[in-house]
Design brief:
This protein has helices at 11-37, 48-70, 76-84, 90-114, 116-121, 125-132, 141-162, 168-173, 176-191, 201-213, 229-248. The two termini are 21 Å apart. The protein has a single domain (11-248), classed as Glycerol uptake facilitator protein, CATH 1.20.1080.10. By secondary structure, the chain is mostly helical.
Amino acid sequence: MLPPVGGERSVVDIIPAEIIGTMLLILLGDGVVAAVLLAKSKAENSGWIVITFGWGFAVMVGAYSVGQFSGAHLNPAVTLGIWINGGIDFGEAIQYWIGEFIGAAIGAVLVLGSYWQHFQQTEDPGLKLAVFSTGPAIRNTFWNLFTEVVGTFVLVLGILAMTDPGNKGVALSGLGTLLVAFLVVGIGLSLGGPTGYAINPARDLSPRIIHAILPVPGKGDSDWGYAWIPVVGPMVGGALGALLYVVAWPG
């Protein structure tokens, strides 16, 4: 989840890399949610800490796997922030978004297949939807949207600030991607409780579509009334984080 470096990148670099990286992100991220929530999983009821660290490791694997090809945005809100910061042009941003949404859908399909028997054994349709997409602990449109804006604001500002060329310690160590993974863990632990911290439109929308169109055993409604919040909120938060970085960080 770093800005591209080292020259221009082509569609051959960006789209396949973002598909693979985001697929890995969702496979491991939604996979840990399935492990914790679904019946008869060996990790059933292992809790929120497991989910937050699982998502952090998912970011780490996806980002380190394809970072050399695309910079590993893996998140349309991150791509938006890097575009605002001037790291890519709009045509490249579209390529990133295409790869991210396709990769997230593929990852969700792989989670469904991996946990098929556990979906069959789980009675609560709400738990099945929660494997694919986020939902509020207390449903309130304004506050749910606010939480997603704040969480993604922290994510994008943190990514840009920590990987800033002037941050010599991070730049020289090469640990920027690992620190971003820990940033995601921190956001989950501190800000994830109200909405499940989508902080990534592709992470929520593509798997929700998979839930809606594929024959998930015993599934219920895909909660489309809420679905716009984890898309709009992260895009607004990502833009605000990038704008603050542009204004407040010199260079």
